[in-house]
Amino acid sequence: MLQAPPAEPGMREDEIDTPALVIDLDAFEHNLDTMAALLAPTGARLRAHAKTHKSPVVAKLQMARGAVGQCVQKVAEAEALAWGGIPDVLVTNQVVSPRKLARLAALSRICEVGLCADDEAQVVLAEQAAEAAGIRLKMLVEIDVGMARGGIAAGPPAVALAERIAASPHLIFGGLQAYHGSAQHIREPEKRAAAIGEAVARTRRTVEQLAQRGLACAIVGGAGTGTFRHEAASGVYNEIQAGSYAFMDVDYAKNDDAPPFRHALFVATTVMSRAGSGIAVVDCGHKGVAVDCGMPGVWQRPGLRFAGASDEHGKIVVEDGAAPALGERLRLVPGHCDPTVDRYDWYVGVRKGRVECLWPIAARGGMA
Predict the structure, then answer these.
(1) Of the residues 68, 88, 134, 200, which has the fewest C-beta atoms closer than 10 A?
(2) Which residues have C-beta within 8 Å of that of residue 10, sequence separation ≥ 6?
């Protein structure tokens, strides 16, 4: 069931129904502008990852600042963005369901779409869908650059798969997908840089070997909020797929050299109980905030710690200073923004204590 909007434009922030997903618009716009400014001198393009925000509205604001398109993980996310007017969407994932491939092929009639492969069987399935739809699908080869999750081995195996794609009358070889997700949260800058250095080396070697076979990479994509500076400066990557930079979360802020972005995404919550000594209970638990990367922070209340969650309750421990009052509003900073966003149907945009806008989270729950 679609959630009712928790607020209306013009109301005070403390009138928002809780729990609610709130964007601090000043911080959010700062983040978009900062990323655009950091990438501009590198020549690398931004293809922001919409698995974070799941919103055509956010995507359009990113593209207004120079992003060339969006990337997603699921066909349903691609559909929500394309239907919302985004002209260029890359599924940075493998798709093996014939039904999903048919949906992706259908999208190519209203926007440019692409997907990834790391096995010839995926290429065959994509060929069949493209032939049936009477179109040509763009397909990138995903290489393993150190994450050990998906991706064919860099070098000759990747080149062979790329040649298979390029030889197909129903496909277009689009380049390389070379994302090192597990490097994003390596806390020590030197170790993180070393991990990306290896990823860059594998990617460069593959690009060079493809060139020797007459295959150019229109896209060499990867990177995330924790490492984008390295990939952008490499001279190898030409598309940056950062997503969390727009919002920031607790986990990225734990990196020793935290990315230069502000916390812009919050869960607004209300203190609903003060029954225990030194304890406050808020109306936001597992159903309101993701804890897979750790507990949320309590914004601008250093004496309060979010200590645990059950389905509908969050436990706040008072470690120092005044306890929050019954009915008091608090902002929680999610530990992990992506799955937190997926719990809500609406963003509430606030500026200077007032609700300025509501944006639907169109791709929320898009698992198919």
Answers:
(1) 134
(2) 354, 355
Residue pair 314/286 in contact by the 8 Å Cβ criterion: no
Q: Is the predicted pLDDT of residue 1 greater than 90, yes or no? A: no
Are 114 and 188 in the same domain? Answer: yes
Radius of gyration of the chain (CA): 22
- The per-residue DSSP string of 101-150 comes to HHHHHHHTTTSEEEEEESSHHHHHHHHHHHHHHTS-EEEEEEEESS--SS
Q: Are residues 209 and 271 in the same domain?
A: no
- Cβ atoms 13, 353 nearer than 8 A: yes
* Packing angle, helices 25-39 and 56-64, rounded to 10: 50
CA distance 145 to 181: 9
Predicted confidence band of residue 101 (pLDDT cuts 50, 70, 90): very high
- CA–CA distances in Å: residue 13 to residues 9, 70, 88, 249, 292: 10, 31, 35, 21, 28
Site of tokens 């593959």:
206
**Could you give the CA distance from residue 142 to residue 210 in angstroms, rounded to a whole number?**
14
At position 80, the amino acid (one-letter code) is: A
At 105, which CATH number? 3.20.20.10
Q: What values do phi and psi take at 234, rounded to 5?
A: -75, -25
Q: How far apart (Å, rounded) are the C-alpha atoms in residues 91 and 85?
A: 16
In whole angstroms, what is the distance from residue 249 CA to residue 152 CA? 31
Q: What is the pLDDT of residue 2?
A: 80
Structural domain span for residue 55: 43-247
pLDDT exceeds cutoff 90 at 3: no
